[in-house]
Amino acid sequence: MIKRILFLEKDHIFIIHKLKEKGFICDENYYDSTNKINLSIYDGVVLRSRLKIDREFIQKAINLKFIARVGSGIENIDQNFASKRNITLISSPEGNKDAVAEHAIGMLLCCMNNIFRSYQEIKKGKWCREINRGVEIMGKTIGIIGYGNTGKSFAKKLSGFDANILCYDILTNVGDSYAEQVDMETIFQKSDIISLHVPYTKKTKGMINYSFIEKFFKPFYLINTSRGGCVITNHLIKSLQKGKIYGACLDVLEYENYSFKNIFHHKKLSKNFLNLIHSDKVILTPHIAGWTKESKYKMDKKIVEKIILLSEQLNLKNKEKKL
């Protein structure tokens, strides 16, 4: 049975209000370390990225039924240990899939049509047309790696561009009317544009590296709105310099930690990051692809729905046991 829930991050008034309406006790603690919180009294925890939910945290939270992460990724949670403790992991990738898809397309259009670069030139009094001649999405082959919520939304929104859309996923039979599911060899052979929509795991960490990039039959544009650690930055930079990658649209960087806060003091920034900033082939945004006013409400709504559903399921199981 779920009664008391702990909120570890601010700005989720909607979730708290809706859960209180349903009779749940909602406590808030936004500043203390977990060592100062009596975790044993809570049936559930709601957070984004401020804290890492590790084995030690879970061991202290002896009554925990669920951990809810408002967002899509759950890499800040020890998923294996949570599973061993029969703790349900809740996230809300459905809530920001459209925001991520729109942002990815916006970055791609900026990159392929030199929108940001030409804007900067105009501000400096330069009127350069020929060197800013763009490239159309129409007729290109777009390879989507990871065809879950955001990958599917990206493909759907691209459907009006008259492009050939392919997808690759470790799961079978996930292709649909918007994207043809193919193997990676086909992605390597045909893609003009690659967009990453993968979770951050041991398999996807550093997946965009020299070896991976060299397998492509032709130069391509790269979009990453998933996790920064999926791309090895110095490998990307050298591929941009060689012309193997035409341009990169990066909403995430490998220098981010799990809380996605300010990266400018990261010890590894140095030369690689400066190369990204000063390259006219790169578009950077500060991890805001899924960060819209609409997505915030939709993610919160999904979290509420999933917590209430879980509570109802647990209550039903308890009743069946008593019978």
Describe the protein's architecture and organization.
The longest helix has 30 residues. The protein has two domains: 117 residues, Rossmann fold (3-Layer(aba) Sandwich); 190 residues, Rossmann fold. With 323 residues, it is an alpha/beta fold. 37% of the residues are buried. β6, α6 and β7 form a beta-alpha-beta unit. The strands form two sheets. A seven-stranded parallel beta sheet has the order 8-7-6-9-10-11-12, with helices on both faces. A five-stranded parallel beta sheet has the order 2-1-3-4-5. α1 packs parallel to α11, α4 crosses α6 and α4 runs antiparallel to α11.
Furnish the topology, listing elements before pairings.
Elements: E1 4-7, H1 13-21, E2 25-28, E3 44-47, H2 55-60, E4 66-69, H3 79-84, E5 88-91, H4 93-112, H5 115-123, E6 141-145, H6 149-158, E7 164-168, E8 180-181, H7 184-190, E9 193-196, H8 210-214, E10 220-224, H9 233-242, E11 245-250, H10 270-278, E12 282-284, H11 293-322
Parallel strand pairs: 1-2, 1-3, 3-4, 4-5, 6-7, 6-9, 7-8, 9-10, 10-11, 11-12
Helix pairs in contact: 1-11, 4-6, 4-11
Name the features:
323 residues; alpha/beta; Rossmann fold; seven-stranded parallel sheet; 15% strand; elongated
